[in-house]
TrEMBL record:
It catalyses: ATP + protein L-histidine = ADP + protein N-phospho-L-histidine. PANTHER family: C4-DICARBOXYLATE TRANSPORT SENSOR PROTEIN DCTB, SENSOR HISTIDINE KINASE. The lineage of its organism: Bacteria, Pseudomonadati, Pseudomonadota, Betaproteobacteria, Rhodocyclales. This is histidine kinase. Residues 513-639 form the Histidine kinase domain. It is an enzyme of class 2 (transferase). InterPro entries: GAF-like_dom_sf, HATPase_C_sf, His_kinase_dom, HisK_dim/P_dom, HisK_dim/P_sf, PAS-like_dom_sf. Coiled coil: none annotated. Its EC number is 2.7.13.3. GO terms for molecular function: ATP binding; phosphorelay sensor kinase activity.
Length: 639
């Protein structure tokens, strides 16, 4: 081997060694770098690559396929300074290179910009603006898709780059790309954990929140969504009965943003296409830029442009087959890339809102029901109570506590409010209730208040089957009927007075009839007594004749006594006394009293009575009813 060849071999060996040392050093520094340090390490690595290949410029781009853009991530020049650019979109500077490198996935080597065809004049101008005469761009792909572009530029023509240079550049590019992919994955994981923490914290707060705290917690969570996404406004809507309208119920916004008003908004008219997609078709919709909205949604595009909305996410929530809520997150100051993971997280958080609002609705309805029940019990003087037989625990409503005079927490304290002479009756009724003979009971008894005052209550209760482990329960209502009972007694007394007054009035009307009824037996008694006396004085009174005369006198006396007793019974002022009475005999007695009245008014009557038949009534009251009926009939016949 000659000296010259030995020199070339040594130079090649030294060059390979230098490259391997560079690749090893870059790989080591990038692997050890923390996520926060990685941007600086990548810039340093790009600077060392520029110096190793004796270039003047270095560029590292990230490809955004959805937007057909190539964003410049880092751009350095020899000496360590960053290279200022007019735009971060390399695709706009190098359209031909975009098609070749990004779309085609091909390496592009430009020995001299003078050799570029006229068709790529825009790319040539871009390279001139970059102050380079020659350049080389290599695509860095993953799974067949170009993710990054690494480029070098020199201020001279024909820098002497070879295929080996391209291979080395590709290897170093993969090293940079690997570190950046790891950073993206780490950031996604951090973001995912961070948002999951937002959801978890929101769930924990909602679980411990009272009904009147739900709205505040939702708006607090909306603020966290804004902080996480960088959006400007996050709102939660509820559908209303009017078609095409939504009510903004919850909202949070970034500083400097004029918020929307919490009111009913006619979105069906302002954004008909978007409303139809989200509410009518129940589909999630998002856009990164307002110009992504289709042409057929021209009305929506004009409205969003007028409002300054640049990005938006709209998530519907279906309850009972229809959309009940819509979660909207919008940005006016920047564009937001709505990744599937981010959308899924926001959708999940909205589901937490829906559950919390449903719980709030149930709590509010329950509170209104309890307030209505409490007010109804207060007005009716009716309380409710429940007794767990197994634990002896007693639950009472506020109205029951008012009736009892204090809170009864056990069956024992409940029974202490009942006077001793009535406890046995109540206990017996409860035992019958528990045994199911019958299961529903009704009883009136007294209650002793805390101050010793007595109240009369009506207690309705029945047995309610409990669970396998809880045992039976008794549910009841307790109504204070003290005033009602007092009114009933007064009414009963007034009714008795009226009955008595009516009887006196009727007797006054019947005076002549009663006098006639009494005169007959008295006249017969007098006649029989005088006849017997004459016969006795004449000494011509046989024993049999005297006995007959005395029997007639006894019979007539009994008849008179019966008339007097009937009159006394009708006039007597006494409480109602029910007794078993033969109804036919009662009618005969009344007709006997009314006989003279009927005769004087020339009224004939016939009795058609059953041989037997008894009822349980107050005899005097029924007599008065019949007398009133007969007297009304007599008056009606003479009208």
């Amino acid at each position: 081997m000659g000296a010259e060849e030995q020199v070339r071999t040594n130079a090649a060996f030294a060059d390979n060694f230098s490259f391997l040392a560079l690749a090893s050093a870059l790989s080591s520094s990038l692997v050890r770098a923390q996520s926060a340090e990685l941007d600086e390490q990548v810039r340093n690595a790009l600077q060392r690559i520029v110096e190793f290949f004796d270039a003047d410029r270095g560029i590292l781009c990230v490809v955004a396929h959805a937007d057909r853009r190539v964003l410049i991530r880092d751009c350095v020049q020899r000496g360590g300074a960053d290279l200022p650019l007019s735009t971060p979109d390399a695709g706009a500077i190098f359209p031909w290179l975009f098609d070749e490198v990004v779309v085609g996935g091909r390496v592009v080597s430009i020995p001299s910009i003078d050799r570029l065809p006229p068709a790529v004049a825009l790319d040539r101008a871009g390279l001139c603006g970059w102050q380079v005469r020659s350049a080389q761009f290599v695509p860095i792909s993953h799974a067949g898709v170009v993710e990054f572009v690494l480029g070098l530029g020199c201020s001279c023509d024909d820098p002497g780059w070879t295929d080996e240079t391209i291979g080395r550049l590709c290897l170093l590019g993969e090293t940079l790309a690997g570190a950046l992919r790891h950073q993206v994955l780490e950031e996604k994981q951090v973001d995912s954990l961070r948002f999951e923490r937002v959801i978890a914290d929101a769930c924990a707060r909602f679980a411990g929140a009272w009904s009147d705290q739900i709205d505040e917690e939702i708006e607090r969570a909306l603020k966290e969504v804004l902080d996480f996404t960088g959006a400007d406004q996050a709102g939660f809507f509820a559908t209303v009965d009017t078609p095409g309208h939504l009510r903004l119920t919850h909202l949070n916004h970034a500083e400097g943003i004029v918020p929307a008003e919490k009111q009913v908004i006619p979105y069906g008219r302002a954004c008909p296409w978007l409303y139809d997609i989200v509410v009518n078709q129940r589909r999630l919709y998002c856009f990164h830029r307002w110009d992504e909205i289709p042409i057929e949604a021209e009305v929506d595009r004009r409205y969003l442009e007028m409002k300054g909305t640049r990005s938006g996410l709209y998530v519907p929530y279906v309850v009972g087959g229809v959309v009940r809520h819509v979660f909207a997150v919008i940005s006016n100051t920047g564009e937001i890339r709505w990744s599937p993971v981010l959308v899924e997280r926001i959708q999940a958080l909205g589901g937490v809102f829906v559950s919390a609002l449903a719980r709030k609705s149930v709590f509010d309805a329950l509170r209104r029901s309890e307030e209505g029940l409490r007010e109804a019990q207060r007005i009716a003087g009716l309380g409710s109570w429940e007794w767990d037989v197994q634990t002896d625990a007693v639950w009472t409503s506020p109205q029951t506590d008012l009736i009892l005079g204090s809170k009864a927490r056990s069956f024992k304290t409940f029974m202490e409010r009942v006077p001793e002479d009535e406890r046995a009756v109540l206990t017996q009724a409860l035992e019958a209730c528990l045994s199911g003979t019958p299961a529903r009971q009704r009883i009136q008894h007294r209650i002793l208040g805390a101050g010793g005052e007595e109240r009369i209550v009506e207690n309705h209760f029945e047995r309610v089957a409990g669970g396998p482990a809880s045992g039976p329960r008794v549910f009841g209502t307790l109504q204070d009927i003290t005033l009602r009972r007092r009114d009933e007694l007064e009414l009963e007394s007034l009714r008795a007075q009226r009955w008595h007054a009516d009887r006196v009035a009727q007797i006054a009307v019947m005076t002549s009839s009663l006098a006639h009824e009494l005169s007959q037996p008295l006249t017969a008694i007098l006649s029989n007594a005088q006849a017997g006396l004459r016969m006795l004085r004449a000494g011509a009174l046989p024993a049999e004749e005297g006995e007959a005369i005395l029997e007639d006198i006894v019979a007539d006396d009994k008849r008179a006594a019966q008339v007097i007793e009937s009159l006394r019974a009708m006039l007597r002022r006494r409480p109602t006394e029910r007794q078993r009475v033969e109804i036919a005999q009662l009618v005969r007695d009344v007709m006997g009293l009314m006989h003279s009245e009927l005769v004087m008014n020339d009224v004939r009557f016939e009795l058609d009575l059953l041989a037997e038949g008894c009822i349980e009534v107050d005899r005097a009251q029924i007599q008065q009813v019949l007398i009133n009926l007969i007297m009304n009939g007599i008056e009606a016949m003479h009208c």
